[in-house]
Amino acid sequence: MLKILFxxxxxxxxxxxxxxxxxxxxxxxxxxxxxxxxxxxxxTSDLVRCIANPSRVDFIRVSSYGAGMTSKGxxxxxxxxxxxxxxxxxxxxxxxxxxxxxxxxxxxxxRKRNPKSLxxxxxxxxxxxxxxxxxxxxxxxxxxxxxxxxxxxDFAEQYRNLPEIYVVESDDSCKTA
Length: 177
Ligand code: IMP
Ligand code: MG
Prior knowledge:
Blueprint: E1 2-6, H1 8-26, E2 31-37, H2 41-49, E3 55-64, E4 75-79, E5 89-97, H3 101-111, E6 117-125, E7 138-142, E8 148-149, E9 165-168, H4 171-176
Parallel strand pairs: 2-3, 2-5, 5-6, 6-7
Antiparallel strand pairs: 1-9, 3-4, 8-9
The structure holds inosinic acid and magnesium ion.
């Protein structure tokens, strides 16, 4: 069962707030936004539309082995960037920071390519679940533990198309409610 967590208006407000902060920090400098596929495709498309800086968008995809609701250690790149990021301002756009493993891997890898700056913009942060210390520079919402879907975020590839963000609740919790 899905329970609404953030409405379209909540999300729009958060995206605009993040965009404003990024615009202020980067003045009118060039930015390359890196959309971490697939979960952040919708977030990236809304975010970049609110930012007037001269920008480029590129895509990267990583997979973590282990199915289910958590990422499990081993991470590999399944689709690399096409842009050269050396000397560029880079903002990684991510849907959720959970254990921190994915972003730690991605930032370590991208830093080796010598960008001028490297920032993390995450819509959601499950800070309490962090296994590796890593902070988002721009975070939309900090949320509790719980599995979320919608607005690009999936469960087994489902629900990405929902315009709002929902928490997945097990049927058991419905029965006892
Ligand atoms: P981390 O490596 O543990 O930080 O995991 C981050 C990735 O796990 C996110 O980019 C998501 O793809 C996925 N993830 C973490 N929490 C959720 C969730 O609640 N719903 C869907 N995907 C999630
Ligand atoms: Mg993801």
